[in-house]
Design brief:
Blueprint (H helix, E strand, L loop, with lengths): L9 E8 L2 E8 L16 E5 L5 E3 L2 E3 L4 E4 L1 H12 L4 E5 L2 E5 L4 H9 L1
Antiparallel strand pairs: 1-2, 2-6, 3-4, 3-7, 5-6, 7-8
Length: about 110
């Protein structure tokens, strides 16, 4: 089931700093629930066009409104986008579709 409105309430943020590239999912109007056995993480799903979905456990930051995607998964997401693949990130009923249009150019600008 999709979100109640056309607005997804999620945003993807890619940051380049001294630690390298970081992928964040920002929750605009809600807070992610923490895992019962690890309150520093939550669960979200990455859905692909041509393969089974992934369930991952990003770190909760910013009071549960900023999720840090683990580095090894972020590396795979970068490679997929560079290969022209799209995917959907889903948290509960909210989701964001990530498309690869002009990703290579945007990544090169970010890395300068």
């Amino acid at each position: 089931m999709g979100p109640d409105t056309e607005f997804s309430y999620l945003e993807l943020e890619i940051v380049h700093n001294s630690a390298g590239l970081r992928f964040y999912v920002n929750l605009l109007l809600l807070e992610a629930p923490s895992l019962k056995d690890d309150p520093s993480r939550t669960t979200l799903t990455i859905e692909w066009e041509d393969q089974e979905p992934w369930t991952i456990n990003p770190f909760l930051l910013g009071g549960g409104q900023k999720l840090l995607i683990p580095g090894n998964i972020a590396d795979v997401l970068i490679e997929k986008l560079l290969d022209g693949k799209t995917f959907t990130i889903r948290l509960g009923r909210s989701y964001i579709c990530v498309i690869s249009d002009a990703f290579r150019d945007k990544l090169e600008c970010l890395l300068k």
